[in-house]
Amino acid sequence: MHEPMYDVLTDHPLQSANSFGIAARSRYAVEIRDEADLPAVLADPRFAGLPRRLLGGGSNVVLTGDFDGLTLLMRIAGKRLVGESAEAVLVEAGAGEVWHELVAWTIAQDRPGLENLALIPGTAGAAPIQNIGAYGVELEERFDSLRAFDTKAGAFVTLDRDSCRFSYRDSLFKREPDRWIVTAVTLRLPRPWRPVTTYPDLARVFADRADVSAAEIFEAVIAVRRQKLPDPAVIGNAGSFFKNPIVPAAQYGDLAAAFPGLVGYPQPDGQVKLAAGWLIDRCGWKGRAVGRAAVHDRQALVLVNRGGATGAEILDLAREIQRSVRDTYGVALEPEPVIL
């Protein structure tokens, strides 16, 4: 029988638990290092009637103030090979594993497939919630299943890819945000491995190459991301703040005629994904600040905390950008981060 072992932290600071570096506190916090502790934590009478939320790396959230409740800090570690066949390699990671370190480990183990997703901030457990993606690869393409605690049923469950209802930067877990606590993720790395270098930034790097390795793609993605995106350890940010909007083909045609150079990517369903960063940049926002919040001077899709910014200041800037893009292009921008 498992004996629960956890400490209850009171009036716990969360500034280091969110990549924006926003100062906020939680009435209670518990670090979850073993999934077996979860039922006991959730049943702890000290937290009865209090609201609850989960933070992994805090790389996709905006904290808007102190939290009068319980914050679960996901710290479950571990990564291992759990299956291998002619079609795929299965790798399992604890939900608290740092995503980039997991990607680096798979490359070092000669298990390619995640290289395009290098240097994305956050944890393995948060990756399916957001259905992360970058440089031509979406997580759902490399996803097998996950283990989670269903707080509604009071039991651990395993959910496969279909059950997770993935879509662009969306999933079952964002639609039912308080129900599921992900504890482990199993990834399916396809065999035979094929390089994905069609994304423009990578296509330029490997323009004349036919024999690209996963390690080379891994390093190229890191270089491109570091050139474009600020390091949260240096200046607070949550990466790309807005989703790339998807519009009907007819609307894209009208916009392209009115705004030469408009960037768009055709989708399988006939719609077109617009580059939110291009729209924001052309509205003149790159490098501009509103109080202590600002748009990054090299990437208009990234909002940054210049020092001491509150969640309210970040959101005020985001709303101004949304208004500007809507008034100019008639396109609505939707934030990627979860607002807490």
TrEMBL record:
Pathway entry? Cell wall biogenesis; peptidoglycan biosynthesis
Question: Which PROSITE patterns does the entry mention?
Answer: FAD_PCMH (PS51387)
Q: Which Pfam families match?
A: FAD_binding_4, MurB_C
* Annotated keywords: Cell cycle, Cell division, Cell shape, Cell wall biogenesis/degradation, Cytoplasm, FAD, Flavoprotein, NADP, Oxidoreductase, Peptidoglycan synthesis
The protein's superkingdom reads: Bacteria
Under the heading InterPro entries, the entry gives: FAD-bd_PCMH, FAD-bd_PCMH-like_sf, FAD-bd_PCMH_sub1, FAD-bd_PCMH_sub2, MurB, MurB_C, MurB_C_sf, Oxid_FAD_bind_N
> Catalytic activity annotated for this protein?
UDP-N-acetyl-alpha-D-muramate + NADP(+) = UDP-N-acetyl-3-O-(1-carboxyvinyl)-alpha-D-glucosamine + NADPH + H(+)
Indicate the segments forming the FAD-binding PCMH-type domain, all copies: 21-192
Which compartments does it reside in?
A: Cytoplasm
Q: GO terms for molecular function, please?
A: UDP-N-acetylmuramate dehydrogenase activity
Q: What is its main location?
A: cytoplasm
Tell me which cofactor or cofactors this protein depends on. Answer: FAD
Enzyme nomenclature, EC number: 1.3.1.98
Q: Where is the active site?
A: 169, 240, 336
Q: What does this protein do?
A: Cell wall formation.
The record ties this protein, via NCBIfam families, to: murB (TIGR00179), PRK00046.1 (NF000755)
Q: Which family does it belong to?
A: Belongs to the MurB family.
> What name appears for this protein in its UniProt entry?
UDP-N-acetylenolpyruvoylglucosamine reductase
Q: Origin organism of this chain?
A: Inquilinus ginsengisoli
